[in-house]
Amino acid sequence: MPELPEVAAIADYVDGRAAGLPIRRVDVASLAVLKTADPPYSALAGRIVESVSRIGKYLIMRTMPGADAADSADPTIVMVIHLSRAGWLRWSDQLSPTPPRPGGKGPIALRVHCGLPGEGFDVTEAGTQKRLAVWIVRDVDEVERIATLGPDVLAIGRDEFGAILSGTTGRIKNVLTDQRVLAGVGNAYSDEILHTARLSPFASAKSLSPEQVDVLHDAMTTVLTDAIGRLEGQTVARLKSEKRTGLRVHARTGLPCPVCGETIREVSFADRSFQYCPGCQTGGKVLADRRMSRLLK
């Protein structure tokens, strides 16, 4: 799943190429990805891309009327994209002028032609679980998921962070990935943050000591800013592989921890899993895999 560093890198990459360009056409191959109908996606044609940015893990493409727009044209129309678990964005200078076939089996869900013929991007989704979502709105707060987001993880200081943790219940892994509490972190970077902070994923959020909160806040900031720096300037096509090179525990089950050498372990539940190091995070204790038995506290 693309998280804050990848979404920030995608936004920066597309903004550098699309900002100031006219949108010539929008093709929708999967109507299921569209979560709004007013304004229609066709209203984007003829508008200018003003900027591409992010809010939490959401891509935000703001547009303004083109030079030939009528006086009644909406001053702002925003395309909001949530890539979810298997979505991605691909920029191309050689987009096919033929619209993708609606309901086709390919990964393309939506195509935006902007700039010169051939320029633009595809929004794609792999796999069979279709969770990609696109909203066309006049204000981002019309998207309920954004309106209910918690503060951005890179915009909060230590004191606010501590207050959030003390006011929540549940395990710290769940708190870090709950977008209604903190926006931007998902499964992969929460594993990395907790490893850096040397905290068990099952530690109670509100029971952390002030010193542990200090360490966790610093780890969160350091892990995310380092990832952003590592991805800066990369093409969108290289972001996934570059992300993997920076991970120390996530998706490394069975490999030695680069810090202490202990074997990295995994806990699985439902349709996902997370990784941790017993030596660094749980005092050597191996957490039971829920597939085999219930989780140990």
UniProtKB/TrEMBL annotation:
Keywords: DNA damage, DNA repair, DNA-binding, Glycosidase, Hydrolase, Lyase, Metal-binding, Multifunctional enzyme, Zinc, Zinc-finger. It catalyses: Hydrolysis of DNA containing ring-opened 7-methylguanine residues, releasing 2,6-diamino-4-hydroxy-5-(N-methyl)formamidopyrimidine; 2'-deoxyribonucleotide-(2'-deoxyribose 5'-phosphate)-2'-deoxyribonucleotide-DNA = a 3'-end 2'-deoxyribonucleotide-(2,3-dehydro-2,3-deoxyribose 5'-phosphate)-DNA + a 5'-end 5'-phospho-2'-deoxyribonucleoside-DNA + H(+). Residues 2-104 form the Formamidopyrimidine-DNA glycosylase catalytic domain. Its cofactor is Zn(2+). GO terms for molecular function: 8-oxo-7,8-dihydroguanine DNA N-glycosylase activity; class I DNA-(apurinic or apyrimidinic site) endonuclease activity; damaged DNA binding; zinc ion binding. Residues 248-282 form the FPG-type domain. GO terms for biological process: base-excision repair. Belongs to the FPG family. This is Fpg/Nei family DNA glycosylase.
